[in-house]
Amino acid sequence: MKVLSVFAIYLVLFSQMLDTSVANVALINIAADLALDTFYASLIMTSIGTGLVISFPLGNLLTRKLANNAVFILGALIFLVSSLLCGLANDVYSFILFRFMQGLSAGMAVVTSFSLMTVTLGKERQALAIALCTSAISLAPVFGPFVGAYITDMLGWRWLFFINVPLITISLLILLPKLETTLSKDKFDYGPLITLSIFGLSIAAFQYCLDFGEKYGWFTDLRIQGGCLLGVLFLAFFLLSNQRWMLVDFSLLRNAQFRTSTFILCIGNGVIFSSIVILPIWLRMDKSYTILQAGMILSISSVIAAILSPLIGRHVKTQYYVWISCLSLLLMAISFYMMSQFKLNTSETTIVISRIIAGLSLATFTAPLLSLSLEKLEQSEVTSANSLSLILRIFSANLFTSLSFIFYKKLTLQNEGEYISKLDRLTLVYMQDTNNQVYHSFSIFRTNALAEMFLYVALFFLLSSVAITVLRRQQSELPASAK
């Protein structure tokens, strides 16, 4: 039956996208079981992101040799196995590897799901096929934090990954008898695949240095030195090879409107994603919220965005996207400014209001900026531009997640040092004998660190709204021949 096949495809895509956000609120639990300091828990999120950066172009390459069905099945099988291994992992290094495999396989499903859903429903129902796939990709992050919190609270964090095994298995049992997995008769060129593999190794090397740099003492450690050297060499090889295979078209960045809009979109996406990784840690550690409370607060903005985004996309005309983008950036600046004022005694109502404003901003954040970035490009360049934008956005999310943990710890220790330097010896002795006082002080240090980081982010979004306005005014003043 078509209904079962559609359901199976939707379930595979939804479960894979769900895993990109389901672990956000469970970072403390996962880090504790894997003997990992919470301040180094960024790699729990960046490992799957690194796999995703590579998987999108990899999926496209594989479809040149394998049928879309085969690539989809391959991705689902790798995701099933890697999910099981994530749940069984007892050390941080194996867990990172299996999370990377999850990301590597998830992108294959995204790349092939649209065509697979269209074939299943029939070309005459292509609009419905696209809507269903988009729904799975959009709704998974909405439910991720709350689902992750509920499963962790009821069954433990390992079931965040075990739950994928029966879901994917059922889906494959439905799909396998009906899918053809033929090979293309065309000769496959392995040059692009090798080039892409080198690109993946470069990304992985740099991400390793970011995630483990502070732990090992940065460039004083041979592992970090070697990782940076390999990253540079792999990147140089990729850039040279890319000139021949053109897997990623960096020349698009010469267009000022694409460059500026993409820069704001990528940096904004990075800081937003990193904030929803850091925020639940603060809520649980310093506000003493339960994992379910943290999950619900985190989900508020995503729910609002999921409801409003389709309505805005349907009813707002593209000529108003510039002002919609400015409004979105201003709302995000207000949200982050409110979060920069958080204290240990901040009420839950204030926290919820800040997330509601963030949700209103998210509803109008990606689509208008993406539309503006593509506006001045030729139609033949749109696909390459979308691919480049997506890769940069995922890479930015990884980068800022790692950086946020680094600066969170650095600012916390800096606040601690400034506080201790002002205390006399007798007070220090008293604090050492009073664990509650010490714990409360560290909560203050972490809260101040969080507030300082969010204040800088608020300033970025405020300046970005100005930059979009200035850029648009400059574009409108150009003569028609220059446009």
Give an overview of the whole structure.
By secondary structure, this protein is mostly helical. It has 3 domains: 185 residues, MFS general substrate transporter like domains (Growth Hormone, Chain: A, Up-down Bundle); 59 residues; 235 residues, Growth Hormone, Chain: A, CATH 1.20.1250. It has 18 helices and no strands. Helix 5 packs antiparallel against helix 6 and helix 11 packs antiparallel against helix 15. The longest helix is centred in the last third of the chain and has 43 residues.
Under CATH, the topology of the largest domain can be stated as: Growth Hormone, Chain: A
Q: What is the structural class?
A: mainly alpha
Overall number of structural domains: 3
Overall mean pLDDT stands at 83
Distance between the termini: 52 Å
Tally of helical runs: 18
CATH architecture of the largest domain: Up-down Bundle
The major β-sheet equals: none
Summarize the helix and strand pattern as letters. Answer: HHHHHHHHHHHHHHHHHH
Q: Briefly, what CATH class of the largest domain?
A: Mainly Alpha
Number of strands: 0
**Which overall shape is indicated by the principal axes computed on the Cα atoms?**
globular
Q: What radius of gyration results from the CA coordinates?
A: 23 Å
Helix content: over 70%
CATH-level-4 superfamily name of the largest domain: MFS general substrate transporter like domains
Query: What percentage of amino acids are in beta strands?
Result: under 5%
Protein name: MFS transporter
Subcellular location: Membrane
Membrane topology: Multi-pass membrane protein
Keywords: Membrane, Transmembrane, Transmembrane helix, Transport
